[in-house]
Amino acid sequence: MKYFMQTVRFSPKNPEQMGLKKLDENKYINIKDNSVWICIPLLDLGWGRENGFCRLPLLSYEELVKLILIPINTPVIKIDDNTFNLYGALACLLDDYPIEFLSELEQMNLSGVINKDKNKLLFELLENELYCSDDTLNKINKKDKEKYLKWKEISHIIK
Questions:
Q1: Could you tell me which residues are beta bridge partners of residue 37?
Q2: Per-residue pLDDT averaged across 93-97, rounded?
Q3: Which residue among 48, 63, 78, 134 is least crowded, i.e. fewest CB within 10 A of its CB?
Q4: Is the predicted pLDDT of residue 20 greater than 70, yes or no?
């Protein structure tokens, strides 16, 4: 099931091009299946945080973790629902549960649940996020500083 949609290099430009119709200030309806979506910022793929949409109801922490564990075997030029689900779930985990998630990520790596070979795209996205957190150290608040320090603590598994 598709839980997330996002732009790539900020394209398409508007929600209508993604099959969404505006309901109110932050809610949209998918014109194909009538599912309700909210607008949220998603991953920074190298040119700023992408515009994204998350299907309602919002997924739990455990459901988000399950999405990042789905193997992605799609070539980069053909992004599928699982890839967008990975992008969206990872963005939500890093935004909403950064310390808990980064600690669990370290444990999953140590126990062999994830690794760089099996979860190549996940590790590439994490490496990009680590770079972005390094770049913003001087501009961060207490919560973000805690997240940054956890990144530093587990960075050896990503690089």
A1: 28, 55
A2: 90
A3: 78
A4: yes
pTM: 0.79
Position 102 scores a pLDDT of 86
Contact between 28 and 37 under an 8 Å Cβ cutoff? The reply is yes
Place of tokens 């779930």: 89
DSSP string computed for 5-44: EE-BTTBSSSGGGGTEEE-SSSEEEETTT--EEEEEEEEE
How many whole angstroms separate alpha carbon 72 and alpha carbon 53? 20
* Of 133 and 8, the one with more pLDDT: 8
Residue-wise burial string across 41-52, b where 16 or more C-beta atoms lie within 10 A, e elsewhere: ebbbbeeebbbb
pLDDT greater at residue 16 or residue 7: 16
| β-strand partners of 52 | 6, 40
